[in-house]
Amino acid sequence: MPVITVEAASLDMEQKRRLAEELTSVAASILGMPAETIYVFLKENALENIGVGGKLLKDREKSVSSPREVRA
């Protein structure tokens, strides 16, 4: 039973459906196994629970909405 785990921020239902379908299809093809044997786990993480470069994504989201100076 192959297991594929995807961790991401918020996903909508269409994204979840496509990930489950397409990851299953590709894995079944590569592994030569029936699609029914492939498990896909989608784990959603709130932005306040993800840090990148020492900053929480929730805090980075706030700074992106602020105007930035553009240098040429």
Write the topology of this structure.
Layout: E1 3-8, H1 13-31, E2 39-44, E3 51-52, E4 55-56, H2 57-65
Parallel strand pairs: 1-2
Antiparallel strand pairs: 3-4
Q: What can you tell me about this protein's structure?
A:
α1 links the parallel β1 (3-8) and β2. The protein has 72 residues and is of the alpha+beta class. The chain is built from two helices and four strands. The protein has one domain: 2-Layer Sandwich (Macrophage Migration Inhibitory Factor), CATH 3.30.429. It has helices at 13-31, 57-65; strands at residues 3-8, 39-44, 51-52, 55-56. The model has no long low-confidence stretch (mean pLDDT 90). The strands form two sheets. A two-stranded parallel ribbon has the order 1-2. A two-stranded antiparallel sheet has the order 3-4.
Count of discrete alpha- or pi-helical segments spanning 4 or more residues: 2
Radius of gyration (Å): 17 Å
Number of domain modules: 1
The CATH C-level class name? Alpha Beta
Quantity of strands, as a count: 4
User: What portion of residues belong to β-strands?
Assistant: 15-25%
Biggest beta sheet summary: 2 strands, parallel
Poorly predicted spans: none
Descriptors for this entry?
72 residues, alpha+beta, Macrophage Migration Inhibitory Factor, two-stranded antiparallel sheet, 2 helices
Short structural description:
With 72 residues, the protein is α+β, with helices and mostly antiparallel strands. The chain is 39% helix and 22% strand. The strands form two sheets. The chain has a two-stranded parallel sheet with strand order 1-2. Strands 3-4 form a two-stranded antiparallel sheet.
